Fold each of these.
Amino acid sequence: MSQLIRAPLLLAALSLVALPAVAQNEVPVMTISLSGSAPESVPNPRAQGAAWHLGRAGIAETLLRLDQDLRLAPLLATDWENTAPDTWVLTLRDDVTFHDGSLLDGAAVKASFDVQGDEQQSAYNPRLMRLLDLAAIETDGFTVTFRTNAPNAAFPYALVEPTAAILRPAGTADLPLIATGPYVFVANEPGRRLSARAFPDYWGGVPALAGVHLDTITDLQTARLALMAGDTDLAFDFPETDFARLQRDGVGDLQLFSAPTARLFFMTANLRNGPLSAPAIREAVSLAIDRDVLVDIAAGGVGAVPARTIFPEIMADWINRDMTLTDDPARAAALLDAAGAVDSNGDGLRDWNGAPLVLRLATYEGRAALRPAAETMQAMLGAVGIGVEVRVAEFDANNAALRAGEIDLHLQAWVTAPVGDPGYFPETLFVSDAGLNDGGYANERLDGLLVAARTAFDPGERRAIFDEVQEILLTDLPLIPLFHATQTSAGAMGLRGFAIHPAETVIVTPELGLVP
């Protein structure tokens, strides 16, 4: 619930840290609900999920950011230059202080990255080190020179990665996380609430709020009710079907926000064993899905777009327009017939290798469109003789089940370009030795192309590489793309300064505020 708290009372209400109070007579504290959370009382800023949460809360900042067009823009660094194939030089702002009052300079940036590259440190981050491929970091005042082991055209995009946020290597009892953002970490109740308070010495000016609460509500209907009751000021993840109803019937005392994002709803297939290890079955599953109907039912028809490749229109420069996914149930049935998957006993289910062709599909809570999408596809696949068993479990448990071959499909939703680079999504999920390659996909040509993309500095050459990457993925179908999401959020009438970011990495900004 939004609150108005006089500055002297703010420290008693929020602060665990002795920093100056916000210089306002009355300052609001905003409560935001979203489906994600950080699992530790002091979140690990080098863990992917926690890093996203801390960035969204306005606590941690990176050297570079993405603007509303998913293009690189300054943040803690004012500019960046590729001075040699293996060298990137960044100039830092000279007016940034950490939450403990210390100055951010080149040495502080180097220290932040050094602990992530040290296997003996708890902050060790092999995934980020792989993205950066650092050989050395050199500093001179407010200049930082990064040298990579090999030419890396994607290097500046990796600096946008939330785990690349600049923090002091170690916190203190009073400041367990020392970052540079407009808000200072106060406390986290895992799975419930993260709290932060304003940093009055923020380099971008005094934040508009005295503090923020990020409440974790995985049941989005509960989030909707909390907003309606005034217990939340902004429901970042607002159910699409309810959003459509408010658009139709009137919003009352609410504001509605929607914008296209780079989030893709898709299914990862188990290629290790079972029916989907056969390419013809994967293709038939994809053809059997009417994506236009799926968008209408699962996403409420509020702007989600059927996927024709892995990238959305807001990444227009990277879309291979010669490739497209089609919806053709008749062709799906013909493919199944040709593959020998036929209904041998008239029960409506095809058989495969002597057993009914029934796919085990898992998904999770936290995104309102996931469950109806699973149930809608269950009916669509049933129409061509493929049975589907739907289960809802935890995201990580589903990935483990996919790795173990216990399920056939994991329905999930990812931002395909949270750092702006088109290599992020395929590198993370489909490179043969990628840590999150849970479906067991392996394609040497794809692996080689993604390595080549890192050394291709010419935009035309990189586009040609990613055209072929999309061709391979849409031919082999280790994933089955479904639709590109439109983020839907709803907030109180007094909410100001909020805009949906296409990478969904930004929520709390210095400008975010509340008018009583």
Amino acid sequence: MMKQLIECVPNFSEGQDMNVIKTITDEIVKVDGVKLLDVDPGKATNRTVVTFVGTPEAVVEAAFLAIKKAAEVIDMTRHHGEHPRFGGTDVCPMVPVSNITMEETVRYAHQLAERVGKELEIPVYCYENAAFTPARRNLANCRAGEYEGLPKKLRDPKWKPDFGPAQFNPRTGATAIGARDFLVAYNINLNTTSTRRANAVAFDLREKGRPVREGNPITGKIKKDENGKEVWIPGALKATKAIGWFIREYGIAQVSINLTNISITPVHEAFEMACIKAQERGMRVSGSELVGLIPKKAMIDAGKYFLRKQQRSVGISEEEIIKIAVKSLGLDDLKPFNPKEKIIEYLLEDPLDKQLVSLTAEGFASETASESPAPGGGSVSAYVAALGVSLGTMVANLSSHKPGWDEKWDEFSRWAEKGQKLKDDLLYLVDEDTRAFNKIMDAFGLPKSTDEEKAQRTTAIQEATKYAIEVPFSTMQKAFQGFEIIRAMVDSGNPNSVTDAGVGALCLRSAVVGAYLNVKVNGAGLKDKIFLETVLNQAGELVTNAHAAEAEIIKLVNEKISH
């Protein structure tokens, strides 16, 4: 139920007339569910790179409207620029950011490509992960011949577009739509002013590596093999490009790295390898710099990597993990690093998404005690479950760092990590339960003057009612999963905290039963009886099992504290 996010980075063949670009980006910002992050025009290339992020359906809609507008306002017969191109919307990659797989992102890219080809009649080639054939994975192959060679290319059966007509439209050209991994621009700070030495480290790191030279290793002629091909020594990091440079503003040299696939080479691995290679050449890495934005997962992965190196539990809060990542990578070496300004998900946060969980404990209680019907039992059940899981997680973290239990740190760290994930899911459901209630109220408030309006209102009420059943049912499922953690902590966790785990079990049982009451009352007006019966049967079984799990755990707790 966590929000899925996709980044979209369309490149438009116009970088000189910002009025034209604004008419395109205006189409993007009018779509609910997306946020425009960056507009980067280039005069020499006559090209503008636009970056926006949002939920998958909203991104597809915004991208389509932008491509449609670009077809109206960009005339490729008049375009000239230094960058390779073959269309008004030259490329439009989609990038998975959070809670979404590459496979899912590819499906959305194909949806967009099909719609552009069908509705706008623009030839579309799918590239990178969205490619239908190996030859089309490489964007350079799809764009070979550029705009000028497009008429001939479209006549070639081997280069029939994946979507849209195999006909040359002089005004729009063609478009490449793809799905790729996130690219991170990342600079490593060195304690030197030498560009040459920074370049040496860059060549050690980058995938391309460095050429083998005859005689002088710097100025010598590049060696060739028996087939006349240049001989290169590959670098240490896959999916990376790198170069060394001197930054006058900071008075240091840096290794500037493009991490083209952070699932292959994540930020923390690039940093660690840079430290090794710099040290081998008599230098030291003093920190690093993130250029642009980064997905939250990349920072979480980095923080957990460094925690594990210390044999510390990774089952701590997201905020603390990111703090560890910032300090370990030295991201505040040159200037303050604010995660709220650099992590994509934080830029997209809507305060309304966390109206309840952002309150103080006193504020939440006061809001619940007010005359408003929401938050109600569903939100409170989710919050009680979050507290129960948090108690189990606390015991796991205390056990992970208990003196004399050093060999067990990883076992308890895994339990704590699982607990943190459950806690976050349940906190999301605290506000989601109130949003589900509000959806029902909104549906009942729809107009009902005409037969069509009545039908639409009835459908909206039924859909909202079904969702108002699904949310507390999800709370039941998540809460019940917490018993596994609680039981493990009572069995083998820090004995000094066994009663804390016991209280956690009481909270989880209360949450399951409380959410069950909401499932039943919200289902009263649902017409889909098959759906309702299925959910009620599963929910009833969860209640029975929750009572049994609580009784077993409390019995075990009492046995342990009576010894």
Amino acid sequence: MRTLLALTICLELVAANVAPLGKYTAVERRHWAFQPRSNPALPKFESQADKNFVRNPIDAFVLARLKKAELAPSVPASKEVLVRRVYFDLTGLPPTPQQVQAFVNDKKPDAWPRLIQQLLDSPHYGERWGQHWLDVVRFAETDGFEYDTHRTEAYRYRDYVIRAFQNDKPYDRFITEQLAGDEIAPQEQESVIAAGFNRLGPLRKNAGNQEVASSRNEVLTEMTNAVGAALLGVTLGCARCHDHKFDPIRQSDYYRMQAYFASTLENDFPLTDREARTTWEATVKPIDAQIKKMQSEMAKADPVKQEEIGKQIAQLESTKPPPPPTLYSVKTDLAKPSPIHLLARGEYTAKGDSVGMRPMGIMLPEGTPEDKDLQQPRARLAGWVTSKENPLTARVMVNRIWQYHFGQGIVVTPNDFGRMGGRPSHPELLDFLANEFVQSGYSVKHIHKLILSSSTWMQASDTKNVKASTDDPENKLLWKFSRRRLTAEELRDSMLMVSGNLNTKQGGPSVIVPIEKELVAALYNPTQWKVTPDPAEHKRRSIYLLVKRNLHLPMLEVFDAPDALVSCARRESSTHAPQALELLNGTFSNEQAEALAAKLAKSSGGKPEKMVDQAYQLVAGRLPSLKERQVAIEFARTATPHEFALAMLNLSAFIYVN
């Protein structure tokens, strides 16, 4: 039995081509994601039909791949479909009937690029694309775990991200500010806020005695894992306990990357004068003293008593006045670095060899020494991440942009470019886009324009191509546009918009909306859920609602909003009964249906025929088909205005983008 086990292990090692003594084999170094970007030649075509399809290089690469599979692209989508599609892609909101009509009637040859530019300049663009980034970096405004303490100043990071996308901040600068804004520009609020990226992960807090070393290890783990998943698209965290089982990432790589954060400590930069802070400290000092005394009692109590005291502590915490405003960020303290060791199985008490700073070895020449310069460690890490020679960073970001336009990336696993992730469906196209991204000065909007001006993106989604449906049912080769459901935030925001209720106010502290009492009561500390008093604030876009890790809004949760505990590489699109129940019976959907009913009644004069046409133009961006019109008019004559409006908000034509 032992012989068989030993043989199995040997075979696995040979199959994995594991290199001895931490070196990297030729096979490991050949993995496509770690190779320098290529400069692929554009495919050429002979037929006029093919030439007509190729509006830009994207189409050339896509068409070449289709032809190789003996498939053909679909026909272009109608102008009505395209205008609704591009509004949702770039702003996350539906176009008004007037906006649809204006584009349909615009016969000028530059109508399409002008519309794209108009939407890229819209303030709603930053809100839409900022949400994508917040998914990736698992943004939330509470700590998670048992106490789920609120981070009252974290909203500033959200607003920073929205501004960055709105202003097309170069992506390399965007990354550098988030990794090391406090190091490179400590006097600039924008940079200090950006560095709050390093504090976005969940944070465990104990009411009793703190295991300081354990807590510090968890914080460093969160910082390190975020770099791998969000910025580099590799499962770096899988090497925390041992060498990566599939990718050429050694455990030493993990802790050498972690060493860049060894001197990073949380820091709240004050925005008020010393007198205001002194007054606040004097107010909370006796409260903190009482809490400390209770914590001491809690450490000696039995479990039942501990829970009781814990709730009393939470209640006492809620009596503190709001702290003076600060910038939720980090700082580098070279006098207090955490010693970084290899940890057996990731256990902080099982320390092995100490290590220093160094990027992942697979992307360096063999034998590259550790970084001995302790000054601005995260800035140097950012320099490596954003280097034009880094083969991962640009590929990962353009793949994310592509995914949000087409529903899936060229690499279908956006956070995993390793051996267990997907291989690129169009590798030459991926490198072309990454090169364009770098050469444009890391302009995200430049990549948008390329994608949105391609014939590939403009294809119809309702094609009946039997051969393509059979040969490529997942549409990986892009022979059509893939129809998609609205995301949770798009659905909520669109309901507010078509009903006339949307409050377009931007930025500022997050909004807490009313929610079922039973859900609030289930919180460890229900007093945390302090509803924003102004009802108008409750109708703002979803990106401005408080993201609480231990309490998700049912409307958003049921439509697959992420949990904000780990990086969300791609939103799922599930279909289940609670979604229908939420849309039909939910308080929010019924409130918007009531407003929509009043809006339609006023504009249509109560005439069913006119009301049906107007309702379809609002929710679907088009007039109804003949059959749709007949059915809707018949229903409108027998149903109440509220029932009719609610039915319109449940239409597939409203919930899906073609």
